[in-house]
């Protein structure tokens, strides 16, 4: 069984994913890192030179490939939900958990990260709020949802383990 973490950027998918994988003795997969391996360029470069559609194509290809294996914790990119097929791939081999946080906390967590091409705008907080609203329905593709705004990494991991125990 795989545990796939979805949610907007800055909700803790990679940080929590690493620690959860260690705790479960699972392999940790960062989907963005897999995309970089496939293409050979950093994500901001992919966006700048080929655009978002090309990036999303790579993301779907990587998701289909990764979903074939078991005993993995998969940290996805925030836009994974933009293509329903990606969620089907992830659900085919395990549990999908949505990590959420407030727009303000997401802004705080991402403001010093230069690897966020979609936030390279004049008002990143407004962009975060707009994108969260646009994706809200798509993120509701799983009944497993955890708000990370006020929880520690350990508390989120405990919640995920409870979800696994009930599956």
Secondary-structure blueprint:
Blueprint: E1 2-6, H1 13-24, E2 27-30, H2 31-39, H3 43-66, E3 72-75, H4 84-92, E4 94-100, H5 103-110, H6 124-139, E5 144-147, H7 153-165
Parallel strand pairs: 1-3, 1-4, 2-3, 4-5
Helix pairs in contact: 1-7, 2-3, 3-4, 5-6
In short:
The protein has helices at residues 13-24, 31-39, 43-66, 84-92, 103-110, 124-139, 153-165, and strands spanning 2-6, 27-30, 72-75, 94-100, 144-147. It has 167 residues and is α/β, with parallel strands linked by helices. Helix 1 crosses helix 7 and helix 2 crosses helix 3 (43-66).
Q: What would you note in describing this structure?
A:
This protein has 167 residues and is of the alpha/beta class. It is built from seven helices and five strands; from the N terminus they run E-H-E-H-H-E-H-E-H-H-E-H. Helix content is 54%, strand content 14%. The protein has a five-stranded parallel beta sheet with strand order 2-3-1-4-5, sandwiched between helices. It starts with a strand and ends with a helix. The mean pLDDT is 92. Its cofactor is Mg(2+).
């Amino acid at each position: 069984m795989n545990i796939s973490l979805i949610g907007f950027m800055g909700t803790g998918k990679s940080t929590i994913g690493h620690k959860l994988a260690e705790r479960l003795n699972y392999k940790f997969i960062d989907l963005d890192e897999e995309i970089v391996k496939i293409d050979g360029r950093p994500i901001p470069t992919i966006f700048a030179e080929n655009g978002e559609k090309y990036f999303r194509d790579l993301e779907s290809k990587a998701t289909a490939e990764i979903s074939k294996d078991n005993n993995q914790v998969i940290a996805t990119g925030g836009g994974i939900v933009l293509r329903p097929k990606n969620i089907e791939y992830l659900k085919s081999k395990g549990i999908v958990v949505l990590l959420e946080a407030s727009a303000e906390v997401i802004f705080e967590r991402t403001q010093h990260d230069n690897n966020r091409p979609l936030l390279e705008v004049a008002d990143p907080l407004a962009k975060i709020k707009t994108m969260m609203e646009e994706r809200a329905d798509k993120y509701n593709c799983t009944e497993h949802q955890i708000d990370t705004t006020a929880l520690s990494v350990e508390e989120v991991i405990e919640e995920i383990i409870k979800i696994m125990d009930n599956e």
